[in-house]
Amino acid sequence: MLVLIQNRVNVFLALIFFQLCCSTILLAESYNRSQNNYSKSFAKLVAEENRVRQQLKTSPDNPDLLIEMAKIKEKVGRYKDAIWYLHKAQQMAPGYEDIYLLEAIMLSKMKSKYACQHKRVFENKYMTQAGGMHQNKIRQILNSSNRNYVQLESGLAYDELSNNRGHWNEYFVNVEYSDCLENSYYGGYTEVKRYNIGDSEFYAGIAIPNSRFSYRLEYRQAEQETLLPEGSILGEFRANNLGPSGVYLRFRKQNYVNIENYSSGLGIDYYFSDYQLAYSREWNKAKSLTQDFESSYVDRVLLKYYWSKNRYVGASYYIGKELNYDGSVNPPYSKIRTFVLNGLQPVTASWSLIYSYKFHEQRGYFDQQGVRVGVRYRY
After folding, report:
1. Which end of the chain is more exposed for a tag (fewer CB within 10 A), N or C?
2. β-sheet bridge partners, residue 341
3. Is there a contact between 192 and 198 (Cβ–Cβ < 8 Å)?
4. Contact 82, 70 (CB under 8 A)
5. In the predicted model, is pLDDT for residue 31 greater than 50?
């Protein structure tokens, strides 16, 4: 049975690798074509801007010309300049509601303190100066873009182990706050029971996204320090400006009572249509008071399908060699294979169900099967 599963997994990985290679070739060809098209489009925009600028010299208060210039600035990503022209058009034609609709669209595309601050007064200004015909539409546009939210998540996990190693239990709760710039501040508490030993930990982290780069820093601290690291720090750097792809570097240090573990990882994400394909490799080096463990690595392949931003299903496969800390001086350290199926399913506008199934083989020690279920509430 395990041989059959392994063969199917190998075929699955081969198909993914083949698709990734084909996608890379197509991406290169598409990039060359897009560069040529971009040069032609940019030259056309420059000509249009020069034409409108000349017309504004003779008719500086023409709202139609001001709106046209704002649209040109929007196309090249200069949203603040575009909004400046819209504000001038609003002074000339305060009752022209389409100007406010354009401003709402541009504000929703911006990721800056200016946009966050301006959204607070924009709707009031619109209701005061214009008739409010597009009020619901404008409110929908602004609410669908970046906004503050608080997210609460809680759940449990249960795993069965072979070779008379009992079962594992886990309970978790975490809270996350995201501001208008999508900076995320989170923390939580986890309680576990493994090998008839209990432990718990607190953790906190910050994630700072950007159109070009993203950063994440996280710290964890165990209470009893019997199973979980007495101290763990993780850092991640991600480059997002590679078209449909993203590359990230990850570093982590874990200090257990008897063991220190260092790991570093390199990964790539590729998005096509409604799918996400990812591959990463993590290198590990562990040492205890009595020995240095052999260096190892774990390869991970992930495939996700998104119906929407908050609804997806995904599958991951891990293979390599890693340490599974059980509180002893000489914990299980062997080759592993892991398959995970997970998903996020909205139930209402605020509530979602999170779920996952996991099969893990710690070769020579045990097999592990388990489920993880939780709820997520966002407001």
Report:
1. N
2. 315, 357
3. yes
4. yes
5. no
Torsions phi, psi for 273 (to 5 deg): 55, -125
**Which position has the token pair 């774990």?**
298
Nearest to 327 by CA among 261, 256, 260, 268: 256
CB atoms < 10 A from the CB of 163, how many? 10
327-368 pLDDT, tens digit each = 777 788 889 999 999 999 999 988 999 999 999 999 989 999
**pLDDT at residue number 55:** 87
Backbone φ and ψ of 162, nearest 5°: -85, 180
Q: Hunting for tokens 């996990």 — which residue is that? A: 157
Helical packing angle, 2-58 and 63-75, nearest 10°? 150
Percent of the chain with pLDDT over 70: 80
**Contact partners, residue 58, CB within 8 Å, separation at least 6:** none
Predicted local confidence at residue 131, as pLDDT? 59
Residue whose C-alpha is closest to residue 340's, from 379, 364, 304:
304
Query: CB–CB of 218/202 below 8 Å?
Result: no
pLDDT of residue 27: 46
| Structure confidence by residue, pLDDT tens digits, 61-94 | 888 888 888 888 888 778 888 888 888 888 888 7
Q: ∠ CA(263), CA(269), CA(275), 5° rounding? A: 135
C-alpha distances out from residue 331 to 246, 248, 258, 286, 291, Å:
35, 30, 10, 11, 12
Give me the residues paired with residue 370 across strands.
159, 358
- Check pLDDT > 50 for residue 146: yes
What's the angle, vertex CA 249, arms to CA 244 and CA 252, rounded to 5?
Answer: 145
Do residues 273 and 280 lie in contact, with contact meaning Cβ atoms separated by under 8 Å? no
Q: Which residues contact 368 (CB under 8 A, 6 or more apart)?
A: 159, 160, 161, 162, 168, 358, 359, 360, 361, 362
CA of 353: how far to CAs of 54, 117, 154, 270, 373, in Å? 57, 33, 10, 26, 8
> Residue 316 has which token pair?
């991951």
β-pair partners for 365? none
Structure tokens at 65: 């010309």
What single DSSP character describes residue 210? Answer: -
